[in-house]
């Protein structure tokens, strides 16, 4: 019958060939999916090896915390000292003569050389009350910077009473203003030097660095430079009021260093380790007077800028189910 109907034979042959082609296309597609799946698994495996190998034993790992005074830094550093042995990294305090926040040029150079070349101490976290040091200016790779800032007026008032009454960290240490019982309100009303609004100018220069303009209260260039450094040169800048979240983000970002840090902070005596013994909140009249200061206005602007950046990072960090992988690598890995 087929022999007597060539058209029907051709039709059957075409259908048969189409079925065969379709079958092999389906098989080829399945095979291609398996190959792509295998490649993804290989990449994931390589990424996991990369993460495992990129641990704190990496001799190039350095973290610098140029801590602003009275921002909760003692509590945070206390956690790192407790965990450094188990997490296998070193913690070093940078102590500068007369508690100066500015390093001379030769000491900047020495500091950069030490941080870069002191192999036996790495991995390391350096901390101290000093302004941002630009490593790129000295022709070496930049370390990771972190910091914590605080609402400017809160920080200023805390420091004012701290130098008079001390704190619960070292309660028997006599501070340099011991015996001076003038309240902050009275100090402001009398325009005394200790509460000069220009003294609020500290967090901006700490981020601005070692340029002359950084330390001129109310300098617009310094404010802009501090903002640029915060975004471009700091891994993370937290705020005192949300210290738990700061530690949490660090633990997820650098787990080999900060593994267990949040749990330790919340369940040990390191939380709120250093509290000023006696402190009085200022009156509204005092606040209104201080707000006229350009230094305070700019410090507030910088704090709000840092807070927005921190909240942005924190919001993205909540997407912990987000995965990052590398696909379609050409030429193929051997």
Blueprint (SSEs and pairs):
Blueprint: H1 6-53, E1 62-66, H2 73-87, E2 90-93, H3 105-117, E3 124-128, E4 144-149, H4 152-165, H5 184-189, H6 203-208, H7 220-233, E5 234-239, H8 243-253, H9 255-258, H10 261-266, H11 284-290, H12 294-317
Parallel strand pairs: 1-3, 1-4, 2-3, 4-5
Helix pairs in contact: 7-12
How does the major sheet shape up?
5 strands, parallel
CATH architecture: 3-Layer(aba) Sandwich
Radius of gyration: 30 Å
H/E element string? HEHEHEEHHHHEHHHHH
Description:
With 334 residues, the chain is of the alpha/beta class. The protein has a single domain, classed as P-loop containing nucleotide triphosphate hydrolases (Rossmann fold, 3-Layer(aba) Sandwich), CATH 3.40.50.300. Helix content is 50%, strand content 8%. The chain is built from twelve helices and five strands. The protein has helices spanning 6-53, 73-87, 105-117, 152-165, 184-189, 203-208, 220-233, 243-253, 255-258, 261-266, 284-290, 294-317, and strands at residues 62-66, 90-93, 124-128, 144-149, 234-239. A five-stranded parallel β-sheet has the order 2-3-1-4-5. Strand 2, helix 3 and strand 3 (124-128) form a beta-alpha-beta unit. Helix 7 packs parallel to helix 12 (294-317). The longest helix is centred in the first third of the chain and has 48 residues, at 6-53. The protein is elongated, with a radius of gyration of 30 Å. It is a single-pass type II membrane protein. Homotrimer. Residues 21-55 form a coiled coil. Belongs to the sulfotransferase 3 family. It is found in: Golgi apparatus membrane.
